[in-house]
Amino acid sequence: MTGSESRAQAIHQIINRESTSVKKPKAFDKIWATDAFTLVKMEEALSKKAYKAVKKTVETGVALDAATADVVAAAMKDWAISKGANFFSHIFYPMTGATAEKHDGFIISDASGKAITEFTGSLLIKGEPDGSSFPNGSIRMTNSARGYTVWDPTSPAYIMHRDNGSTLCIPCVFISWTGEALDKKVPLMRSNSAMAKAGERVLKLMGEENVATLNSSCGAEQEYFLVDANLASLRPDLMITGRTLFGAESAKGQQFDDHYFGAIPKRVQVYMQAIEDKLYRVGIPAKTRHNEVAPGQFELAPYYEAANVAADHQQLTMTILKDTAKEHGFVCLMHEKPFAGINGSGKHVNWSVGNSTQGNLLDPGNNPHDNLNFLLFCGAVIRGVHLHGPLLRAVIASAGNDHRLGANEAPPAILSVYLGSQIEDVFEQIKNGKLDGSTDGGIMDLGLSQIIPFAKDPGDRNRTSPFAFTGNRFEFRAVGSEQSVNGPLVAMNTMLADSLGWIADELEAVLNDGADQTTAVIAVLKKLMTEHGNAVFGGDGYSEEWHTTAVDDRGLKNIPTTADALPAYKESSVVELFESTGVLSPLELASRFEVYAEQYIETIILEAKMVTDIATTKIYPAATQYLSDLALTGASMTDLGVDFDKSILELVASETNSMMAAVAKLSTVIEKEDFGSDEEHLQYCANDIRSLMDEVRSHADTLEMNVSDSIWPLPKYQEMLFIK
Ligand code: ADP
Ligand code: MG
Q1: Residues 147 and 191 in one domain
Q2: Which of 83, 97, 459, 495 is 20 to 30 Å from the Cα of 67, by its Cα?
Q3: Which atom of ligand 1 is nearest to the CA of 470?
């Protein structure tokens, strides 16, 4: 079958696909968390004493004793076996951003051939996969490979049902034999504690006597694309790299804005319902779903949870989205920019901090100017974004996200913070040394008696900001759709810990001088705003003007690529930030730079190889076949004395030659190996390799628009985006 015949067959299969009907979803209370070993289940299964111990660990982070762990392990095993699981697996989150699992059976047998199931506290608590087989940034050599997975009792275990059986999944941290973090969970938990400690200090200084353990919360909105598997499987670039490395823009893109919040196509809705069913069963509170801006693009958001649990649930959501797509004949693309020329996908990480005694400390209430705790925590975020903008940029850096940031649809690569008019005004007053009051949104009265007037939000939204206050939380909007939320959460919690520490020191000094609380808070925040107010920006982040004033007048950094962003991990201010808060040691931080740099380099090289491969083995043959057809036709026509216009023939010939010349250059460029430093290697990928890939693509895309459709081997944008 030629390439173009496979295309036709794929379309035929999609059109003749048996339609699945949208079923009534299962009653929520029948399925909610049935496959999760939550605190509610533990309360039923454990003794009062054991349950109380686990609950305390979950709420305050204190250690669980070995005897209780044994009791929990036994109860967890019985529960899992009753659900049909014969295996258990420690689930952990290596630095690659993936989810890793290692399965073990509950079964043990004796010499007489008798088999029983066994699961002790020590098996629950600790596993030992090979620490060197995951990227560890030189922390572990292959000859000293021991690594441990250790149970995190604060994140509920759950059952995964797959075709090949059911498995008890136990969320774990992953550390080296020498105790260094090899994963994304350890730093998140440490950053949470650092933030809690510093926050408690501030609250105590503010006269709060009863202060429960602070925790950060996260609700992550996930964008993704769905493409029919018949078509996607004919695109090796999409299947291997997650994005189209070639593809001329389709005449119809998103220019009519007809997809955003449009009716969800039936086949997609069936898929979404299947997703929600699975998410509910493992205790993930999926809450919103809608069409996104680009054709074929959708979004899912859960209700927010404690950051550590939300992060595990986010990883699991991505797995379920991908796995379930296969069952429905789709491929779920989580890449940040699967298709050039239309919007890419992001993951908005909504984040707040709070506790059970003071509530959400980023909730301003009705009178923000009176809410001193809020002002201090919000001020701490402003200082953090200003001081650590480059770090926030580094934690969202990836080869995929580079295509999206700064393009005209996603936040710019300059980190600033949007507060909304009301809060911005309050901080402006503070900067000027007096605090009179807060504006409010007023009442929205349409003057239509049928429409009930309502209280307006005190600030508008600003979708051009990478980091926006949205009423009772911050929304980090520049995160990429494929990325783990852990890096961003770690950066936010850590910068907050540092800033709250600074605020506590300053407050303490002013209070010791005899100032009253309000005066002290205003004095400290005035200083903070004078030094760091430059990070606050309420205007259009997409505009040309902002790109100049941000850098020239405000001293903010515009950091366009991953190659420019990752070196922030080596800045002394960042090393000190992580070391002083106890979140990452200098060795652990250095290992992260190494792993992320390698991931970026490997991604670019893989893409470049795919570019040369597809151009040579798919596009070149189609183009030359077309040339040969045209040449034959032209020759016969000339023989017959009929005029033949050679312009297409000449264009295809010249574009084919130029494409292959660029392919030849790219193949040589990929081979280079000797680099003076990682930084040099990163820049080489971002500039030399990427620009040649773009050059090959531009010729190939011109060919796509000029070669006969009947011999074009790759499914086209309009087919992948619109045929479902
Ligand atoms: P929008 O698209 O309007 O930004 P969504 O409803 O799609 O909003 O997503 C908002 C996300 O923010 C949800 O996951 C929601 O649960 C979460 N969220 C709401 N309040 C908080 C909070 N205080 N802290 C963290 N996340 C929150
Ligand atoms: Mg949002």
Answers
A1: no
A2: 83
A3: 4
Closest ligand 1 atom to residue 354 Cα is 23
Asked if 153 and 54 touch (Cβ cutoff 8 Å), the reply is: yes
Q: Could you count the other beta carbons within 10 Å of the beta carbon of residue 698? A: 16
- Does residue 637 fall inside a structural domain? no
Using the mean position of ligand 2's atoms as its centre, give its distance from the Cα of residue 348 in Å. Answer: 6
CA of 68 to the centre of ligand 2 (A): 41
Q: Decide: residue 718, CB within 10 A, 0-12 exposed, 13-18 middle, 19+ buried.
A: middle
Ligand 2 center–CA 367 separation, angstroms? 24
Q: What is the distance in A from the centroid of ligand 1 to the CA of 350?
A: 6
pLDDT digits (tens, 9 = 90+) for 54-78: 999 888 888 888 889 889 988 999 9
User: Would you place residue 361 in the very low, low, confident or very high pLDDT band (cuts 50, 70, 90)?
Assistant: very high
Summarised one tens digit per residue, pLDDT across range 311-339 is 999 999 999 999 999 999 999 999 999 99
Please tell me the distance from the alpha carbon of residue 50 to that of residue 65, in angstroms, as a whole number: 10
Domain boundary among 547, 563, 580: 580
Whether 60 and 191 map to the same domain: the answer is: no
Residues 6+ apart with CB under 8 A from 105: 86, 87
The closest ligand to the CA of 290 turns out to be: 1
Instruction: Report residues near ion ligand 2: CB below 5 Å.
Output: 348
pLDDT digits (tens, 9 = 90+) for 373-426: 999 999 999 999 999 999 999 999 999 999 998 776 677 789 999 999 899 999
- End-to-end CA, the chain: 23
Question: Do 191 and 42 share a structural domain?
Answer: no
Statement to judge: residues 141 and 160 lie in one domain: yes
**Whole-angstrom distance, CA of residue 605 vs CA of residue 582:** 35
Q: CA nearest 86: which of 171, 172, 173, 161?
A: 161
Ligand 1 binding pocket mutation candidate from 292, 304, 361, 476 (most atoms within 8 A of CB): 304
What number does the ligand 1 atom closest to the CA of 350 have? 26
When pLDDT is averaged across residues 245-261 and rounded to a whole number, the result is 73
Binding-site residues, ligand 1, Cβ < 6 A: 217-219, 221, 288, 301-304, 350-352, 360, 472-473
Judge whether 392 lies within some domain. Answer: yes
Number of structural domains in the chain: 2
CA angle 5, 6, 7 (to 5 degrees): 90
Please tell me the distance between residue 137's alpha carbon and the centre of ligand 2 in angstroms: 34
Same domain, 148 and 197: no
Do 168 and 200 fall within a single domain? no
Helix, strand, coil share of the chain (percent; to 5): 50, 15, 35
Considering the domain architecture, whether residues 514 and 539 belong to the same structural domain is answered as yes
142, two tokens: 């292959």
Structure tokens at 238: 């999409």
The CATH code of the domain that includes 57 is 3.10.20.70
Residue 260 CA to ligand 2 center (angstroms) comes to: 14
Picking from 280, 311, 281, 283, the residue whose alpha carbon sits closest to that of residue 217 is 311
Instruction: Give the chain's length.
Output: 724
Q: Please, which residues have CB within 8 angstroms of residue 91's CB and are 6 or more apart in sequence?
A: 99, 100, 101, 169, 170, 171, 172, 312
Task: Give the end of a domain, one of 562, 580, 598.
Answer: 580
Q: Are residues 70 and 193 in the same domain?
A: no
Distance 221 CA to ligand 2 centre (A): 7
Tokens of 128: 């030992």
Query: Which of 192, 214, 215, 221 should be mutated for ligand 1, with most atoms under 8 A from CB?
Result: 221
Is the pTM above the cut of 0.70?
yes
Question: Rounded distance, CA 635 to CA 427, Å?
Answer: 77
Residue 146 lies in a domain: yes
Does some domain include residue 638?
Answer: no
Show the domain range for 515: 184-217+359-580
